[in-house]
Amino acid sequence: MFAMSRAFYLPYMSRIVVIGGGVIGCAVAERLSLDRHQVTLLERDQLGGRASGAAAGELSPASQSGEESLAMFPELVARIEKDSAMNVEYRVQQGLKPAFTESEATSLKTQSGRWLDPAECGTIEPALTRDIVGALLLEHAHLTPPRFVHALARAAAAHGAEICEGTPATGFKLEGNEVRRVRTSTREIAADWVVIAAGPWTREVASSAGIDVDVRPQRGQLAALDPGSLVLRRSVFWSTGYLVPKGDGTIIAGGTEEDSGFDDRPTLDGIASLLDLARRLVPGLASASLQRVWAGLRPVTSDGDPIVAPTYVHNLIVATGHHRKGILLAPIAAATVAGLIGPSAG
Ligand SMILES: Cc1cc2nc3c(=O)[nH]c(=O)nc-3n(C[C@H](O)[C@H](O)[C@H](O)COP(=O)(O)OP(=O)(O)OC[C@H]3O[C@@H](n4cnc5c(N)ncnc54)[C@H](O)[C@@H]3O)c2cc1C
User: Fold this and answer.
1) With 0-12 CB in 10 A as exposed, 13-18 as middle and 19+ as buried, what is 186?
2) Residue 4: is its pLDDT beyond 80?
């Protein structure tokens, strides 16, 4: 209520249309509406209905920008939990990266974290395989992605953003090198700025403004295991996947990397590879029951780096290609877009 009355008395800065209601679009909408821009977010289906809702929720940085984005979470989570009245289940916990060979151990010991010998591993995580030469103990953070996406959208709405589900963007009205309006099947929305954050569909959406974006889908599959009486307290990371114990008692096994076009259905081969990995890392999971399997399409670029940048259509920004780290990188992507737009009208 307070946000709505504040929006009534103070003028907006720019009219911004955000296309895509995944984690990137919702984080951008939250940040821009907080900066007093008049935001309309268009989501073709449901908020977080694609990769952003499918993700495991690991916040494990592997780059400088990942570290910077991770550092933004405590403040962002506090703000959106307050503004949305939702709990995104953010927590900092420990994880293990086991080594099966001495050469894997040598490479892991160069990373930050504390090295544990096999006896120490057995003491702190008895369910972990004994077939290792040690493991790196590290701190990482974690949240529940569908809750995070919805909390971002609700917080944006609390700052005055209009959130439209079931509303695909169908085209643009351009004048010279600028977008003037975004089309949907029912209306045209005037825009000072447009942000396309449509995941792997960004290429298709941007093409109707004459822009080619180098992004494609990559399928990732996940399985939720009910471990019965087996206890796993820490996440376990391995080069080809991971096991993540969730607050509801399940363990998530993930995640494959497959070129399947826009087919986001789980397959026998994909799930079998996850289950093999789960058994190798935690042999007691052989008697776990399989609760659920699912898959999502990560947006991935040719060089593997995200694209958060203006295009040659002056007021059109693209924010995509966050591959395996879109949940982690959402805060820094939103801050980058806010920096590109700045405080003044476009
Ligand atoms: C199995 C799996 C596990 C993962 N685990 C993690 C993890 O643990 N940690 C992490 O950081 N990342 C993880 N990721 C990666 C992360 O999920 C993605 O990088 C991120 O969700 C991408 O978000 P996005 O908003 O760019 O795309 P999406 O989530 O795909 O959202 C794009 C949205 O745009 C909408 N859209 C498309 N076309 C239109 C249109 N014309 N008009 C309006 N809307 C449109 C779509 O419906 C969709 O909702 C994982 C991914 C997968 C698949």
Assistant:
1) exposed
2) no
How many CB atoms sit inside 10 A of residue 14's CB? Answer: 20
Indicate whether 346 belongs to any domain: no
Q: Nearest residue CA, atom 31 of ligand 1?
A: 22
For 28-57, what is each residue's pLDDT tens digit? 999 999 999 999 999 999 999 999 999 999
Is position 63 within any domain? yes
| Number of domains, the chain | 2
Q: At what angle do helices 23-34 and 326-341 cross, to 10 degrees?
A: 40
Please check whether residues 102 and 76 belong to one and the same domain: no
Q: 333 CA distance to ligand 1 centroid (A)?
A: 13
Q: Which domain holds residue 119?
A: 94-140+217-300
Ligand 1 is surrounded, with C-beta below 6 A, by 19-25, 42-45, 49-52, 54-58, 168-169, 197-199, 201, 205, 220, 222, 254-255, 296, 298-299, 320, 322-328
Q: Is the residue at 283 inside a domain?
A: yes
Output the residue whose Cα is nearest ligand 1's atom 35: 20
